[in-house]
Amino acid sequence: MNRAAAELNTVQSNVTARVRALELELGVLLFQRHARGVKITPAGRAYAPLFGTPYPGCLATPRPLQGMTAFRVVCWKSAPWKRLRRFGSVSARKLYKSLPKGPARSHDGNDLYLIEDVVECRLEGAFVAGPVDHPDLQQESVFREELVLVTPRSIRALEDLSSITELKTIVFRVGCSYRIRLDNLLSKAGILVAQPCEFGSIDAILGCVAAASEFTLLPKGYRCRGLAGRPGRGA
Amino acid sequence: MNWPAEFAEVQTVFIRRTDAYVSSALSAFLQIVRPDAELHLAAE
User: Fold this and answer.
1) β-bridge mates for residue A198, sequence order
2) Which helix (H) or strand (E) holds A51?
3) Beta strand residue intervals within chain A, DSSP E
4) Residue range A159-184: average pLDDT?
5) A-interface mutation test, from B1, B14, B26, B38, most A Cβ less than 10 A away
6) Digit-coded pLDDT (tens) for A5-37
7) Predicted complex ipTM exceeds 0.85
8) Which residues 139-178 of chain A have a CB within 8 Å of chain B?
9) Which among A135, A126, A137, A146 has a CA at the least distance from the CA of A217?
10) Interface list for A 37-76 with B (CB within 8 A)
11) Nearest residue to A201 via CA among A209, A212, A211, A190
């Protein structure tokens, strides 16, 4: 502690107080105190790489890890996580149940928010639509899904879309990767769309598509009764 | 009408900071969610 204080150009009591505050915030003991000084604990050793990193946000807002086992991984709208549970079958479910707070939760945001949360160390990881190009992030492919245009059954072909006056898309708010793809697709196809209607849930989007001559772009797994999915590989 | 490939599919990726600490639990989780884990589990 003395050497740390000298290094930081401050007094020892200041260092000790900061370490204690950090331990309280993290809920783990970073150092074991004894008469001759302190000894780093296994938890302190595990956290050490975080505190040695050059971005100060990590130390200022340490992540709420619960001991050494819990972590926060988030996917938007929970859909990718449901697929993961299906893919991972029994082992993934066992792991999910075995962790104190579960490894994954849905997030009331979208890919842009999730990426920002990971960059800012508020989350350990996230499932988002790739590819993600950020110098501080690394990514691993998890699974690939086919995209479909979801339309009312009255629309039988993609060409029908261009004949509809006041065509509207039903989408999530700005930042949704499906929305970005849909906008780019329509732009490339030369189809003009009025102001998009934004909704916060899949159910609301699908309900709106079924009720009016409107459409959206979603992974194939979201298709539901009364609606038609136009495969993205050539309809 | 053929769609460009970038609109036909969406790739879900798992992102994390390159300098982040990977706990044993997160490491185990990643082992499970990787695509080859699916094949491994199917073979069991």
Assistant:
1) A171
2) helix A42-51
3) 31-34, 37-40, 73-76, 104-107, 125-130, 137-152, 168-171, 197-198, 214-219, 227-231
4) 76
5) B14
6) 877 777 888 888 888 877 776 667 778 887 777
7) no
8) 139-147, 158-159, 177-178
9) A146
10) 46-47, 49-50, 53, 65, 68-71, 73, 75
11) A209
> In the predicted model, is pLDDT for residue A60 greater than 60?
no
Task: Tell me the two tokens of residue A122.
Answer: 């508020």
Q: Which of B10, B23, B41 sits opposite A88 (nearest CB)?
A: B41
Instruction: Out of A6-15, A85-94, A118-127, pick the least confident.
Output: A85-94
* Adjacent-strand bridge partners of A14: none
**Interface mutation vs chain A, best among B7, B24, B27, most A CBs within 10 Å:** B7
Residues of chain A with Cβ-Cβ distance to B13 below 8 Å are: 127-132, 139-142
What pLDDT score does A137 carry?
92
**Can you give the length of chain B in residues?**
44
> Model-level pTM?
0.55
What's the CA gap between A230 and A82, in Å, rounded? 23
Q: Where are the alpha helices (DSSP H) in A101-157?
A: 111-119
Closest by alpha carbon to A207, among A224, A183, A228, A182?
A224
